[in-house]
Amino acid sequence: MKEIRLGTIGSGMIVHAILDCTKQVEGIRLVAAYSRDRAKGEELAAEYGASKVYTDMDEFLKDEEMNVVYVASPNSLHYEQSKKALLAGKHVLCEKPFCTRAEQARELRQIAREKGLMLIDATPTIFLPNLEILKRELPKVGKVKMVMSSYSQYSSRYDRLLAGEVPNVFNPKFAGGCLMDINYYNVYLNVLLFGKPQATVYYPNIYPGLVDTSGVAVMQYDGFVGECVGAKDTWGVNTMQIQGEEGFIFIEGGSNCLLSIRVVTKTSDETFNQQFEENRWLYEVQEVTKVLLNEDHDFIEQGLDVMENVVEVIEGARKAAGIFFPGDECGN
Q1: Terminal CA-to-CA distance of the chain, rounded, Å?
Q2: How many CA atoms lie within 13 A of 43 on its CB side?
Q3: Separation between Cα atoms, residue 91 and residue 3, nearest integer Å
């Protein structure tokens, strides 16, 4: 692939954040936008220099100029739209949460392999420079005994929920909820660093008749416990702390930012940082562009391995907590 000619599905905040960064990165540009709302699609296309707007998905996927589809629609649509794009012969970059069920993730991976296409999980954590520092420094704390992750971000859409509306992010029909959104980052980084846990239990605060607005996931590993706190109905200081027998690591900004990595042992106290860009989404766009242009299948497969485990962990935890989406077995 010589150039990424991008087509977008979705027009929310994350799409604008990603497209803002494409203006700074060579080798990637927007050529087409899909939106059910033509006015939103035309606004997005005009802002980022695309000449084509589609309101019909099939026509959008027939566009021969476009070679990569960025799926950033409501959670419940990720699987269906990614599958359609792959079957249409397009490479796919899919926003988190990748799918709602592990079987869907496995199916998409198989389709991509069979068709020789690249399928990338867009969870931003894996593209951050400070992740490599974290992995490098982790052995210094010795045997890990406790991991505490906290990510809370009060949502303006929670105010709308309290006012009687049901925004997509809190609607089970759209696979909403805090575990699928905010707390996903905490679970993701734990799985990325330590693998799939032996067991996970989720204790949610469920809005009556809908989904979780906050909650705590407890992940049991061999010899230690990971606690993941996430909230869209409160706010606080976002951090992650990994405690071992020889010291601890304190991650400023929490699991989705990794603003700095402080490593404290019995003999040292050092803080590391290699992230100097104000807009952290730029790291993702830079790395995704490099991965696609270089056809780095090893990196892609490693990311998909993590994603598949995360989806499996979250699926099991939310179902056990009584949170079901359309299509789930025994769902509502």
Answers
A1: 44
A2: 11
A3: 12
- Amino acid present at 203: Y
Alpha helices in the chain (DSSP H): 13-22, 38-48, 57-61, 78-87, 102-115, 129-137, 156-162, 182-194, 281-294, 297-320
List the chain pLDDT tens, one digit each, 332 residues.
899 999 999 988 999 999 999 999 999 999 999 999 999 999 999 999 999 999 999 999 999 999 999 999 999 999 999 999 999 999 999 999 999 999 999 999 999 999 999 999 999 999 999 999 999 999 999 999 999 999 999 999 999 999 999 999 999 999 999 999 999 999 999 999 999 999 999 999 999 999 999 999 999 999 999 999 999 999 999 999 999 999 999 999 999 999 999 999 999 999 999 999 989 999 999 999 999 999 999 999 999 999 999 999 999 999 999 999 998 874 33
Contacts of 267 (CB under 8 A, 6+ apart): none
For every residue of 159-228, DSSP letters joined together read HHHHTT---GGG-GGGT-STTTTHHHHHHHHHHHHH-S-SEEEEEEEEPTTS-EEEEEEEEE-SS-EEEE
- DSSP output for 23-46: TTSTTEEEEEEE-SSHHHHHHHHH
Measured between alpha carbons, how far is 288 from 124 in angstroms, rounded to an integer? 10
Q: State the pTM of this model.
A: 0.96
* CA–CA distance, 191 with 169 (Å, rounded to integer): 24
Backbone angles phi, psi at 325, to 5 degrees: -115, 160
**Separation in Å, CA 236 to CA 154, 179, 253:** 9, 17, 11
Instruction: Count CA atoms closer than 13 A to 24's CA, side-chain side.
Output: 15
Report the sign of the C-alpha dihedral through residues 302, 307, 312, 316, in that order: positive
What 3-state class would DSSP assign to 242? strand
